[in-house]
Write a structure and sequence with these properties.
The chain is of the alpha+beta class and 149 residues long. It contains six helices and two strands; from the N terminus they run H-H-H-H-H-H-E-E. It has a two-stranded antiparallel sheet with strand order 1-2. Strand 1 and strand 2 form a beta hairpin.
Length: 149
């Protein structure tokens, strides 16, 4: 099934590119953020039937493809570790360098637990800078404390 969702994601990306749409355009049409819409179209989220119907109409998808958008995905789309794509590798590198810092700061502020990637929001924006534009990513995940039992 993962291969089918990946293939459908590739098809959607090609249609989006052909129509000169952005993920913000797709998000507006689906009624969701550009981040969530991109993740869902690439197969990392499942769409509710009404959202899948909008996506199917937007991209002229078949009933089988619409149903695939509704299926719960097998999450995690990076085929190798470490990743070989240079942009994705930089995120891997970021976690390698700052992962223990994130962990220490979160534990100091919240205690022993994790930041959820399920109850999660993310935004990406261009930040102008005279030395070259910067990528600004804002992430917000619910804190989930570990239970003692």
């Amino acid at each position: 099934m993962n291969e089918l969702k990946t293939a459908l994601g590739n098809k959607i990306v090609q249609l989006k590119k052909k129509r000169n749409w952005t993920w913000a355009d797709v998000g507006r049409e689906l009624g969701h953020s550009p981040v969530w819409s991109c993740a869902a179209c690439l197969g990392q989220m499942s769409m509710k039937p009404e959202t899948a119907a909008k996506a199917a109409a937007l991209f002229a998808l078949s009933n089988e493809e619409k149903a695939l958008l509704e299926q719960v995905p097998y999450r995690g789309s990076i085929p190798s570790t470490p990743p070989t794509d240079p942009l994705i590798y930089r995120f891997y590198e970021l976690i390698s360098v700052y992962g223990t810092t994130f962990k220490s700061l979160i534990e100091e502020e919240f205690g022993d637990g994790i930041m959820s990637a399920i109850d999660f929001d993310m935004a990406l924006e261009r930040q102008p800078d005279p030395k070259g534009d910067r990528v600004k990513i804002t992430m917000s995940g619910k804190f989930l404390p570990y239970k003692t039992y």
